[in-house]
Each structure stands twice: as C-alpha cells, then as structure tokens.
Amino acid sequence: MTKGGMESVEVFTTEGKGRGLKAQKEFLPGDVIFAEPAYAAVVFDSLTHVICHTCFKRQERLHRCGQCKFAYYCDRTCQRAAWLNHKNECSAIKRHGKAPTENIRLAARILWKIEREGSGLSEGCLVSIDELQNHVDSFGEEEKKDLRTDVESFLEFWPPQCQQFGMQFISHIFGVISCNGFTLSDQRGLQAVGVGIFPNLCQANHDCWPNCTVVFNNGNHEAVRSMFHTQMRIELRALSKISPGDELTVSYVDFLNLSEERRKQLKKQYYFDCTCEHCKKQIKDDLMLAVKAGESKPSADTVKEVIQFSKDTLEKINKARMEGLYHEVVKLCRDCLKKQEPVLGDTNIYLLRILSIASEVLSYLQMFEEAADYAKRMVDGYLKIYHPNNAQLGMAVMRAGVTHWHAGLIEAGHGLICKAYAILLITHGPSHPITKDLEVMRVQTEMELRMFQQNEFMYYKMREAALKNQKIQVMPEPSNENAPGLFHKKE
C-alpha cells in the first residue's frame, strides 16, 4: 500500500507488534526514506510568544496575529502559510477569551482538519487518523482522569457552529496525541518546542538498535520564490544499509540506559514489551555496568555503594542546576568522580553521566581545559556503546570538539569536529542548520590546524591576541532537559 511520495515504503502487519513499515527498495546510510509534513502541530504553551507557529523556528522578533493576539510568526510568509490551520483557532480563541493548553489546541486542529477533509486517508498518508492507535484502554487511573479533564476543556473551547463529534471519537483523538505526539524542536535541534502528529511516522515500530532515525526539519520559508522553498516536515533517514523487505525501525527512547530500564520506560509510555535483540540478549548491559578490571577488582558491595552514591549525587546535581548553582554542580561532579574512578569501568553509565554534566557545566563556566578532559573520556565511552550513526552520539562528539577547540587543543578539537560532522551528515543531512554550523567549524579549525602545524608559537600568539580583542564565545547555559526525545509524552 503506497501513496503520494510514499512509494518506497509499505505498511504491513507483524505478529505481536501490529502494523509496521517495510522498505520497498534499497537504502544507504543517510538516505531520506520519506519526508512527511505534520497532519497537525502546535507550539508548547510556555513558548508560544518566542517560536514561530508555522515553522517552529526560534526568532528574536516575531509578528503577532492582530486578531487573536495569541499566534506569532516569523513574517508574512509564515503567517499566510498558517492561515488555513489558524483560521478556526483564531476565532475560537477570541470567542473563548483565551487560548487553551497545547493538548486541546492540537486536538482542535486535528478535528478542524477532519471537518474540512473528512477522516479518511489524507494525501500522502498511508493510514487515516481513525486507524491510529490510542491505547485508551491501557490508561491508568491518573491518565483517565487527565483524559476526562482534557475532553471537558475541549468541549468548552470547541465552537457550537463547528461540526460536533462524539465523546468516544474526541477521546480517541486525545489518546492518539498521548501515544503518537511527535516532539518538534527548534532549528538547532537542541530544544523541544512543540508537538505534532505525523500518521506515517506513527507506523514505524521501535527497536533499541534501529536502522532509521527521525529528524525534524523546520523547512525554508524565506526562499519563497525559489525552488528551495520547503515546508516544515519530519524526515525518516536510514542509519545503515536497508534491503527491500526489511522492516523500518526507529528508537523511541535513548539507548544509554540498561535494557531493563528501557523496557520499563517503553511499557510505561507506549504500552508494549520490547522484544528487540538488544533487550532480549541484554546486549551492551555489561559495558554500561562495567567495573574496574585488573588485580584489585572491587567487591560487589563497593560497586553497589558507589552506584548508590552516584544516584544520590545526580539528584543533588539536578537540584543545584535548577537553582543555577553551577560551581556547586562542578564540586559535586568532582567529588563523585573521585569515588567512581577507582571502582567503575570507563563505559559505566553512572560515570558517563557525571562526565557529561561536568564537561557541559565547566564549558559554560569557561574552564575549558578541565572540561575537555572530561568530554574526551565521555566520548570514548559513548563510542563503545552507541550505534556509530546515532544522532545523540554526533551531538556529544560535536560538543566535545567545540570544548577542545575553546581549550586551544586544536588537533583533538578538529578531529572531533570532523567525526561529529560525518555522523550528522547521515542523521541530519547536509542542509540541516546544525550540520551547516559544523561545516563552518570544520573549515575554521582546519585553517587553524594548518597554522598550528606550520608554527606553533605563532599560532598561540595569534590566538591570544584574538581572545583579547573579542570575548570568547560563551557556551549555551546548561539545560536540565535531555535532548528532545522522539515522541512527546505528557509527564
């Protein structure tokens, strides 16, 4: 079954997993298997005034809708592109007196689209909204209560003159949002800024070691009169060679967790038991729980004690980060590493988590040399655990490269930036803003490396002069959030 731009994939039914997607032809790493515009999408409540409601880019100055005073856009192009989806919302917000929550707004946008087009197959969709999984029957008491609240709020917001839908169908739509809402990120891919429904993507099953990845592409609205004008979309990209007939899989959760933890998370959020090879055989769990090898192997009690100390420290770190006490975070990390280093192996996830936080916060505080040392150890551990073409690995290697570059370690910095660029070319593609940023850094560090190789003394003199004349670029403030996950789930 294929449809408009989806000729390279087909929907099939799999034993025990329901529907899935299968490749119709061969794909190589980095190939775009399909791109899909959102069926409906909204900006998160907390960011409605700083993110464009059409392309989801973060912008300094946005134009506000003169009618409802709620929606914001980059420019007239984005505002015009939004009108079909915003028209009903605009008058409903004016009538209601205020905008409802993101969940209600997304449900309303889906139902207005159904009112316009019917609930059958939309152009380019392999399945209809009616057919998407809602898992409402699996909801716990708390989730059912939230669902009832959402349905009541929706009915208050939904205009009486619009098509009326039954309670069961409205509940179905909220269930679909809860299980299938995809996280939309800003143009740098670093912050989750909204949620959308992409029916074709919803058909891709989970695997902890997938053969595909999903990247959100904000599109190019500025090039309005050229062939480069593209709309906001998600892209499903191949991570490894895929043969015709292979199932296309994506990972719903970060791999950097023990198989038991990943399975718990998947069961809680997506209501299924993961039976992938990596979970069944607990592949890589030994690396993630590694302890120091050699003559004086630590006792099981010592390991248990250090892991408990690490968990307690991570809680304290989160609290200190929330309060912006970054020097306190550094102290906690250093103390924890002192305890961990004689006991835990280089790939132990508790050690890697502390190294990651320490390198990020020290970079922000411009203590680049110490940060670079931790970042290098973090990357060495990640490379042994993650799939070689994992987007989170690419971002971590990029961060480590920038840290080394800022520390004046130009050889290691350039090497890491090149490595990150090779990964992100596959996971994000050459035209993604973050890949373009990396390309600029790659060219700059290559030029500096040549200068360094010709005359080390002169390189450091010029670097010193440059740093005196211009303030060193400050790293972004460390975020408490993890990198945006694949599917958005209300906590």
From TrEMBL:
CDD domains: SET_SMYD1. Keywords: Cytoplasm, DNA-binding, Metal-binding, Methyltransferase, Nucleus, Repressor, S-adenosyl-L-methionine, Transcription, Transcription regulation, Transferase, Zinc, Zinc-finger. GO terms for cellular component: cytoplasm; nucleus. GO terms for biological process: methylation. It is an enzyme of class 2 (transferase). Residues 7-253 form the SET domain. InterPro entries: H3K4_H4K5_MeTrfase, SET_dom, SET_dom_sf, SMYD1_SET, TPR-like_helical_dom_sf, Znf_MYND. The keyword Repressor applies. Its EC number is 2.1.1.354. It catalyses: L-lysyl(4)-[histone H3] + 3 S-adenosyl-L-methionine = N(6),N(6),N(6)-trimethyl-L-lysyl(4)-[histone H3] + 3 S-adenosyl-L-homocysteine + 3 H(+). It comes from the Eukaryota. It is found in: Cytoplasm; Nucleus. Pfam families: SET, zf-MYND. GO terms for molecular function: DNA binding; histone H3K4 trimethyltransferase activity; zinc ion binding. Residues 52-90 form the MYND-type domain. The keyword Cytoplasm applies. Interacts with HDAC1, HDAC2 and HDAC3. Interacts (via MYND-type zinc finger) with NACA isoform skNAC. This is [histone H3]-lysine(4) N-trimethyltransferase. It comes from Ptilonorhynchus violaceus. The gene is Smyd1.
